[in-house]
Amino acid sequence: MRPLYVQRYLLTGLLTFIPIWLTWVVFKTIFSLLSQLNLPWIAALFAAFPETLGTVRESWLMSLLAFAITLLALYATGFAASRVFGQRLLGAFERLIEHIPIAHSIYGGAKKLMSLLQNKPSGTQRVVLIDFPSPELKSIGFVTRVFRDAAGTELAAVYVPTTPNPTGGYLEIVPIERLVATDWSVDQAMAFILSAGAAGPDVVPFVVDRAVLARGVPARAATGDPSGG
């Protein structure tokens, strides 16, 4: 009788299943969040026409319709925001938000973060490596802004996301000269984080000196100016 290789095949099956499962979990989460936005309206619509829509009142169908309507609404919002009329409406909405203290802080911070992630900050690279959580280690970070301290030293606010959930992380204030510049795009960095390092470049832009590590001194940058110049 041929050997079953139970342990080998179970491990292979597990390694094959985990990426599929993670993809499904992310898709299901996004689907649920988007469908919940319009689900009450869809439920009210089905209830208003019990003789027609009520005959096909299925939860999965209502969620699917709510998801599709939300996508259409997001598309329409993006289209309108790129036109003069939509920009005027958005400006009026933002002026209204400014009079609500807590809402203004949340909306303003979220809008700035989305804008910063779409554009490269002046004076440095977007994706960098920093000494975190200790000088001997490196972590991927996203530069959100560059500013100066009271002495005129250039500092960078760096968001360090966690793996595999990048929505949580740490905010570090790092001197510009301590940043290790990379040529990675935001998409490449996010793929590296979400895959726990499995998807990423074969060469990283710094050199690990074992003798230096033994003394507890940070690794030195191999190439590139941290200022991006």
**Average residue-wise pLDDT:** 77
Category by helix and strand content: alpha+beta
Largest sheet: 5 strands, antiparallel
Total strand segments: 7
Q: How many structural domains does the protein architecture include?
A: 2
The unreliable regions are 221-229
Order of helices and strands: HHHHEEEEEHEHE
**Anisotropy-based shape:** flat
Number of helices, where a helix is a run of at least 4 consecutive DSSP H or I residues: 6
Relative strand content = 15-25%
State the separation between the terminal residues, measured CA to CA: 66 Å
Helix content: 40-55%
Spatial order of the strands forming the largest sheet: 4-3-2-1-5
Our Rg estimate from Cα atoms comes to 24 Å
Which features does this protein show?
229 residues; alpha+beta; 2 domains; five-stranded antiparallel sheet; two-stranded antiparallel ribbon; 7 strands; disordered C terminus
